[in-house]
Amino acid sequence: MPTPAVHPAGSLPPAFPALTGDHWIETLSDGSHVLVRPIRAEDRERESDFIARLSPSARHFRFLGEIREASPALLDQLVNVDFSQAMAYVALAHDNGVLREVGVSRYSASGDAQHCECAVAVADDWQHRGLGTLLMQHLIATARRHGFRRMFSIDAAANEPMRELAAWLGFARERDPHDATQVIHTLAL
Fold this sequence. Notes:
Elements: E1 5-7, E2 24-27, E3 33-38, H1 44-53, H2 56-63, H3 72-79, E4 86-95, E5 98-110, E6 112-122, H4 131-145, E7 150-156, H5 160-169, E8 172-175, E9 182-188
Parallel strand pairs: 6-7
Antiparallel strand pairs: 1-2, 2-3, 3-4, 4-5, 5-6, 7-9, 8-9
């Protein structure tokens, strides 16, 4: 999977307005552009729309269960991060003049300050462009900066896209000893 290009703030693609703060405009493998930045509380509606637009199988793989829409409590958890023990990056793309969420990666500390659990989801129509790789690379770098030693993800054993992404990023894979339908991907940071 190719590494997407980063555009410095002075050379934004024309579809994106001039922005300030921590964000990146990146070019994906098909030449399309996304804005990547930390999630914000005001992204609540975008996050809800993103989850609702995922195919049933993509929602199942992301949440390891059947959900049609995110509850208010889940949305609170997803958009309220502290940028250290819990972090999330969103990828936004223009869709008829509106910035639409097309991907998200996140981690959350797990019990101790050494381990964090991660997840990534990409809109069905934005898959196979390198976006999952891009989002996870940002997430891994941030987890390292915050002192985590190991990142893990619990996934459905049938989740082929996650299996490929995890292998590409160097995660080890093992069966979940408590649930034969799941696997655990682990990366030493």
